[in-house]
Amino acid sequence: MSESEKLLVVKDLATTFATAGGLVPAVGGVSFDLERNETLGIVGESGSGKTVLSRTIMGLQPRANVTVTGSARVNGFEVVGASEKEKRQIWGTEVAMVFQDPMTSLNPVMRIGKQIDEALRVRMGMNRAAARARAIELLELVGIPSPAQRYDAYPGQLSGGMRQRVVIATALACSPKLLMADEPTTGLDVTIQAQILNLLDELKDRLKMSVILVTHDLGVVATRTSRIVVMYAGRIVETGSTREVFYHHRMPYTRALLESSPKVSNHPHTRLATIPGRPPNLLKLAQGCSFAPRCAYATDRCHQERPELQPAAEPGHSFACWNPLPTTRGVAAP
Ligand SMILES: Nc1ncnc2c1ncn2[C@@H]1O[C@H](COP(=O)(O)OP(=O)(O)O)[C@@H](O)[C@H]1O
Ligand SMILES: [Mg+2]
After folding, report:
1. Which residue in 93, 73, 39, 45 sits closest to 213, CA to CA?
2. Last residue of a domain, one of 175, 205, 239
């Protein structure tokens, strides 16, 4: 497939914040792409730049103190450098985002139906009756029982899971081709998490969308994505097909993430393994590999020279590491 046919092409994308403490390279030069009707997982521990990357792709950045370079083309539209007015052409219709916290993305004093209506009337130019009918249809689509009655409910009258369904309905209002879901199940209990993830999966096929699923938990993307991008300190450190990343990862950080992911088989009160050491300070990034200070396999070279992504055995799989884990190719998958 040629690049122009891809839904999303990101090249050397970098987002830097100017802060009192210095420059924060929150996203430090990232390249990847996304096919139509594909689900991609973006995974990394907290602070690795997932939210800043997603917001940069949407073109949602504070106006002051931020520099964005590189390129992010959504269905051919270059987001980097586009004006607010130009970006309004793609918000909602080409790309929409489900934010991390459903409570802050819903207005607590506005009936949920009205919140969906608004997008339809302003963006799609629908009249009141048409917007109401479509909003109810969207509530039904995301699995809200008795949608016509729930249309008049306030967010506080719904459970966390139902609220997240409303947020998804709002994002879907203008039929986006790309839905970005940033930690869409954080704070929800495990059963509800699975329901929301299944819903996103189902909607992707029904609406022929592409989905970017952003999460700190590799377990969330295991069965629901075709490819994974692993981020650390604002960069991609490993990427490949989901299967490859799970079973044949080479980067020690990917392994550490896997080991820190909650397992269904764990007793509910098992303490989660966390990755030892401190997350990197972006103001003082080491000149070598950013993960080296926490890596059990780091060599002198790792501390001195930054590894670039290099191809692994399977096409599409690459990793940035000077001293990778031994390849497990040819060994039966666990
Ligand atoms: N507006 C901002 N100004 C300065 N630093 C920021 C800003 N927004 C995010 N950051 C920093 O960028 C880094 C990445 O943050 P984020 O993308 O939220 O991580 P993640 O979503 O992976 O947890 C963090 O170190 C965070 O402190
Ligand atoms: Mg985040």
Report:
1. 39
2. 175
For the ranges 12-26, 35-49, 267-281, which has the lowest average pLDDT?
267-281
**Does the predicted model carry a pTM greater than 0.85?**
yes
Phi, psi of 226 (to 5 degrees): -95, -30
Q: Give 173-211 pLDDT, tens digit per residue.
A: 999 999 999 999 888 888 999 999 999 999 999 999 999
All residues at 6 or more sequence positions from 81 whose CB lies less than 8 Å from its CB, including other chains = 68
CA-nearest residue for atom 25, ligand 1, is: 47
190-207 and 160-172 are packed helices; what angle lies between their axes, rounded to 10 degrees?
20
CA of 235 to the centre of ligand 2 (A): 14
- The answer to whether 164 and 183 have CB atoms below 8 angstroms apart is no
Instruction: Say if ligand 1 is within 6 A of residue 52 CB.
Output: yes
175, 190, 217 - which closes a domain:
175
Please tell me whether residues 116 and 88 are part of one structural domain. Answer: no
Distance CA(53)–CA(90), nearest Å, equals 17
Based on the domain organization, do 219 and 126 belong to the same domain?
no
